[in-house]
Amino acid sequence: MEKDNIALYPGCSLETSSSHYMKSLKTVFSVLGIPFRIMNDWNCCGATSVKSIDYDLNLQLNHKNLALAEEQGIKELVVPCASCYHRLADAEYMLSKDEKRRTELNGKNDFPYKGQVKVRNILDFFVNVVGLDIISKNVKKPLSGLTVACYYGCLNTRVPLEQSFDTREYPMTMDMIVKALGANFIDWSYKTDCCGASLFITVNSIAEKLVGKILKDASLRGVDCVIVSCPMCQTNLDTKQKSIRSKNSIEQPLPVPFITQLMGLAFGCKPKDLGLNKNFVPVESILSSCSVVKNEDE
Amino acid sequence: MGITELEKRKILYKDTLLCYQCAKCSSGCPLVEEMDMYPHVVIHLASLGLERSVMNSETIWICASCYACAVKCPNDIEIPNIMNRLKQMALDEGFEPKRKDVYKFHKVFTDDILRRGKVHELRIMIEYNLRLGKLLKNATLAPKMLFKNKLHFIPPKAVKGFRKWVKKTS
Lengths: 298, 170
Ligand code: SF4
Ligand code: SF4
Ligand code: SF4
Ligand code: SF4
Hints:
By secondary structure, chain A is mainly α. Chain A is built from 14 helices and six strands.
């Protein structure tokens, strides 16, 4: 792994509503010996909204991001937000297919984009660039006894086939990371079901129904928590969980930590360095499921 | 710019032509219960050049762009991209968006990005509610997030050179 040309594209939500994702990423990168560099002057990817009403503008926004990353000497652009990843990967793909459009956009920008930046999903980065061996080597408190459901959401893996880093309909990268931390994962048909995205704000009743189904199934399978790697998934599954649980008669709270928060716990990092106080459903409780097993072992 | 109505229609036709109506897209769609027209019907009508009947549907706005259908389609038809194109054509041709609540959110979001290159989440929530005339419709979401200090009152700093870029490209 060439460390000098790795940088993060954080996206808007990691700077505000999901600062706990940013914090835990930073902590985990430091344990893994990866420099925590954030790309300069990035702009919003446009999410699902811009492309819904102006696809061309969406492509331009991300052409600008990619051109800028290239100008900054970045070869691996690591993207933690599933929605940002999907937009940046889409631009990477479309601009590689459409030479004419790329040249045209290059003319409008301060910098050209030559197609030399690799857009990396955070899961792809951990598994295929950092490596599961390095991850498991850093585990100080194995999460044995913990059973989790890995929730990928829709956009992490649903890119064109040539671009995909994992099976699009039944991905396993997050499950592999969980295994490297010593925890158990379950086979789960809901792992790529949609949580409703911005419908959570616009047509809340629909989104809550979707989230309800996801949480209900996870709880029926008796998992200790649901792991995510997308800030929007985390917000949707976590923020209003209490009322969603009561509507769906789910008794136990289901913590929704980011994969990086779980990694940090296994690496023995302090909760405050992982932003655990920002999760609505308390995460620390899952540690008791692990320690119970440990005490029995001793 | 540049691309004529006829060309737009041609692209739409070309991209939907391979559809053989297996309905795999509709059967895997998580939002199908909320739609007034099945996704495979949207594609079918578009491929027949009857897209005007689709532009008036709720479906194109309800679609969450989750791509579940696109990864399942045996003919690699990018259904959500087609839904997006239909939304844009509907707006261009002066159709009233059938789901104004969804349209307004996308609009508020897009306008906010154009302001400084990044979105200000709190502003989006407030402005969206104002434009819909339902202040704090999400009363349970925003205050909860404010309480955890997750929504900032102060907008993010503008991206360097962004306004200039917007002027130059538009
Ligand atoms: S997807 Fe969300 S977080 Fe990512 S850049 Fe866009 S608005 Fe910001
Ligand atoms: S699961 Fe929800 S938030 Fe996550 S990527 Fe899909 S729509 Fe977006
Ligand atoms: S899955 Fe593809 S081929 Fe089948 S009906 Fe849908 S769009 Fe047509
Ligand atoms: S992208 Fe739209 S049509 Fe396709 S499965 Fe998702 S919500 Fe349904």
